[in-house]
Write a structure and sequence with these properties.
By secondary structure, this protein is α/β, with parallel strands linked by helices. It has a domain of 249 residues. 45% of the residues lie in helices and 8% in strands. It is built from 24 helices and 13 strands. The strands form three sheets. Strands 2, 3, 4, 5, 6 and 7 form a six-stranded parallel sheet that branches. Helix 5 packs across helix 11, helix 14 crosses helix 15 and helix 17 crosses helix 24. The longest helix has 18 residues. It is globular. The structure holds 2-acetamido-2-deoxy-beta-D-glucopyranose (4 copies). One 2-acetamido-2-deoxy-beta-D-glucopyranose binds next to loops. One of its GO terms (molecular function) is glycosyltransferase activity. This is O-fucosyltransferase family protein. Its main location: membrane. Belongs to the glycosyltransferase GT106 family. It is found in: Membrane.
Length: 510
């Protein structure tokens, strides 16, 4: 939804939102965790989110799974007959002479920028141009000014692609004034503003090549989602995946931190008393395995979904207000009732609901769970049910010291990069909400045939509406409803993103 609202209006909106920060806490405290929680008695209408599905929760806490089911849950995907293939079909080829320099400026969070980088390499290839390392814009929501070089290993990037596209970290001195500031401060002949969404390769040849020919340089901005997914040469598609899955690796300090977290997650949990030897044995069988839960449940998403999350009248009001401020009420979902939205699977799962889903799939209180999450709306109160089900739940803060986290602290893109890295190493990945991070990992893990559970939102939405459902039935239906949603290869259809579905464009039948 970050992409939905107009970029131009954003700073104004954020300023307005800033105003509300001052005004709102007076009557809607739970928007602002610490204040609300510190003085709950001041606000009688405000209640910390409580479990909404108590009887299911109770069932989940007392269930037993057969050994066979446990084994199947954690076992890797079997070979599906597909393997990565990103080698160029016609053999790698660099143009004899570059047509000029291509610059792009990328909006969005880390995973949206990642797609933009892959497209930028592809466009440079289509034009036989030299790509300048993309400039990452500061996102008004995430507020991280990290550059490409701060996040990705530039030398590796250039090196992996060196036989296919020439890439430079910096413009040569005769072009050195073509900076971000240069484009930000006036109308420039070398800036292409009109790239349509999902433009064809011909569009680039017709509209960008002439600029390159007359100026030796062209800047394309905006550039997000500006290259089509269909009707491109096979080699261009493979190149996009090669960038995504081979050329883009994180800088060494992010990989090192990621490895530290992974090692600690794989280590069997704390010392246990000898009276607990049975329990210990169970844990050691589990040792080394972990599941990553990507939970995007921030205020933005909660408000935009227009669903009811059980925080009572105060929460409903707070979210409606937030919707009004950020999107001037233009939120399609707001026209529907909560029940309609849930029936259609359009409500993000709450931490409690995702916990019940995990329990129904067979995860239990000795499963190690890594929570990849930025900020959870409602804070710890909202997460506590999930923690009851999964006491061995960890995150960056619980696994690493402040010193270890110092270089990434407060930097949304670097934190997202660490989560991406830990997610890629996990035995199982599950994302509670569709979005760029979800899609990026579904694709990357499918490319490597790694287990990835995709929640069936429609099924779950409907089940959670039924307040009289018993655990055993819920569990049964959920379990069956996710059998074919664990990483089975899905072929990309027309118009679908190659960054979500890498097969068949970038995978070959073995
Ligand atoms: C885990 O759950 C089992 C029952 O399913 C219970 O007997 C055991 O005490 C629980 N362990 C912890 C650490 O909560
Ligand atoms: C929890 O699951 C593991 C396998 O994932 C299993 O070995 C263990 O027996 C289960 N524990 C309980 C209490 O059900
Ligand atoms: C790019 O180079 C290839 C050969 O290397 C050539 O076939 C193609 O026409 C060139 N395209 C442009 C836009 O220069
Ligand atoms: C809710 O679940 C119960 C038990 O499975 C079932 O009998 C009932 O028909 C369901 N109600 C609705 C409205 O689907």
């Amino acid at each position: 939804m970050k992409q939905i609202y107009n970029y131009q209006n954003q700073s104004r909106i954020m300023a307005l939102a800033g105003l509300f920060v001052i005004i709102l806490p007076i009557f809607i405290p739970n928007l602002f965790g610490p204040l609300g929680r510190a003085f709950p008695s001041l606000f009688s209408e405000w209640n910390a989110p409580k479990p909404r599905h108590l009887s299911l929760l109770n069932g989940a806490l007392h269930q037993h799974f057969s050994i066979k089911q446990q084994y199947e849950l954690w076992s890797p995907l079997s070979n599906q007959g597909w393997e990565p293939c990103t080698q160029s079909i016609n053999g790698p080829s660099l143009p004899e002479k570059s047509r000029g320099f291509i610059q792009v400026f990328l909006d969005g969070g880390l995973n949206q920028q990642r797609m933009g980088i892959c497209d930028a390499v592809a466009v440079a290839k289509i034009l036989n141009a030299t790509l300048v390392i993309p400039h990452l814009e500061v996102n008004p929501v995430w507020q991280d000014s990290s550059s490409f070089t701060d996040i990705f290993d530039v030398d590796h990037f250039i090196n992996v692609l060196r036989y296919e596209v020439s890439i430079v970290a910096k413009l040569p001195s005769e072009y050195s004034w073509y900076t971000r500031e240069y484009y930000g401060t006036g109308i420039r002949a070398t800036r292409i503003k009109t790239a349509p969404v999902h433009a064809s390769s011909n569009w680039y040849l017709e509209n960008v090549l002439p600029v390159l020919q007359s100026h030796g340089i062209a800047a394309i901005a905006p550039f997000s989602h500006r290259l089509a997914f269909d009707n491109l040469p096979d080699d261009i598609q493979r190149l996009r995946c090669k960038v995504n899955f081979q050329a883009l690796v994180f800088v060494p300090h992010i990989q090192a931190l990621g490895n530290t977290l992974v090692q600690r997650l794989r280590r069997p949990p704390g010392k246990l008393q000898s009276s607990q030897t049975n329990y210990l044995r169970e844990k050691i069988e589990d040792a080394g395995k972990y599941v990553v839960l990507h939970l995007r449940f921030d205020k933005d998403m909660a408000a935009h979904s227009a669903c009811d999350f059980g925080g009572g009248k105060a929460e409903r009001l707070a979210l409606a207000k937030y919707r009004q401020v950020l999107w001037q009420g233009r939120v399609l979902n707001a026209q529907f009732t909560d029940e309609m939205l849930r029936t259609q699977g359009r409500c993000p799962l709450t931490p409690e609901e995702i916990g019940l889903l995990l329990a129904a799939l067979g995860f239990n209180n000795s499963s190690r769970l890594y929570l990849a999450s930025h900020k959870v709306y409602g804070g710890e109160a909202r997460i506590s049910t999930l923690r009851t089900l999964f006491p061995l739940m960890e995150d960056k803060k619980s696994l690493a010291s402040q010193e270890e986290l110092a270089r990434v602290e407060g930097k949304a893109s670097l934190l997202a990069a660490v989560d991406y890295y830990v997610s890629m190493q996990s035995n199982i990945f599950i994302s509670a909400s569709p979005g760029n991070m979800h899609n990026a990992l579904v694709a990357h893990r499918s490319y490597l045939n790694l287990k990835t559970i995709r929640p069936n939102m429609v099924l779950l939405g409907q089940l959670f509406l039924n307040k009289s459902m018993e655990w055993s039935e819920f569990q049964n239906v959920v379990f069956k409803g996710h059998k074919n949603r664990q990483g089975q290869v899905r072929l990309r259809k027309a118009k679908q993103s190659i960054y979500t579905y890498p097969a068949p464009d970038c995978m070959c039948e073995a």
